[in-house]
Specification:
Helix content: 55-70%
Strand content: under 5%
Largest sheet: none
CATH superfamily of the largest domain: Tetracycline Repressor, domain 2
Order of helices and strands: HHHHHHHHH
CATH architecture of the largest domain: Orthogonal Bundle
Distance between the termini: 97 Å
Low-confidence stretches: none
Structural class: mainly alpha
Number of strands: 0
CATH topology of the largest domain: Tetracycline Repressor, domain 2
Length: 203
């Protein structure tokens, strides 16, 4: 007796969000491996196992995909530092310490990805500090401290930029010197220095 043959199962249809994520993950891996300039859209769709037309449904170009990867990095960075700010703290200097420790750790541990996304292709822009979510997060932290009379700051945007640039510069130093284990000590230095600067004007 011959049993009826079982029809071949149809491949699972992936949801649009899943395809977009797979394209981004494939592109990120290829960019890190081959470089952005040497990675084509054909390379990306082959690695993600999707049709080329699907790529253009989600991204109009490789540059738009790169911007999506940059935004994902920034979102992840801000989530990490936001989580750090939710940790228990004895005083506001410790809040700053939590932020700087998380920020330095994120940049150091994702050095190659950060540099590929933000330095390998486009030169630094002088407008980088405008509409910068990380600077905005620091500015809000400064304003929160000001509102509770912990410190006084007449120029929160400028102070936030100085905090951001100082953190970034020390992260670069740790990476260049190959001393990532010192990041906690430098987080303490940043927190104590900016806490002192912010409290200078309190009478």
């Amino acid at each position: 007796m011959n049993l009826p043959s079982t029809p071949p199962s149809r491949p699972r249809r992936r949801a649009p969000k899943e395809r977009r994520l797979e394209l981004m993950n494939a592109a990120q891996s290829l960019f890190l491996e081959k470089g952005i300039q040497h990675t084509s859209v054909d390379d990306i769709v082959a690695a993600a196992d999707v049709a080329k037309g699907t790529f253009y449904v989600h991204f109009g170009s490789k540059d738009i995909l790169l911007m999506a990867l940059q935004q994902r990095f920034i979102d992840d960075f801000c989530q990490r530092t936001h989580h750090a700010l939710q940790q228990p703290y004895a005083n506001w200097e410790q809040r700053l310490l939590h932020w700087f420790d998380a920020a330095l750790g994120c940049l150091i541990h994702q050095e190659l990805l950060h540099d590929m996304l933000f330095h390998d292709i486009h030169p630094a822009s002088r407008s980088l500090m405008q509409n910068n979510p990380v600077v905005d997060q620091l500015r809000q932290l400064i304003l929160d401290g000001h509102a509770t009379a912990v410190w006084h700051c007449d120029h929160p945007q400028e102070m936030a930029i100085m905090m951001f640039q100082s953190m970034h510069g020390l992260a670069d130093m740790l990476i260049s010197n190959k001393t990532p284990q010192q990041h906690s000590a430098l987080a303490h230095l940043l927190a104590s220095s900016f806490s002192a600067a912010l409290t200078l004007n309190i009478s």
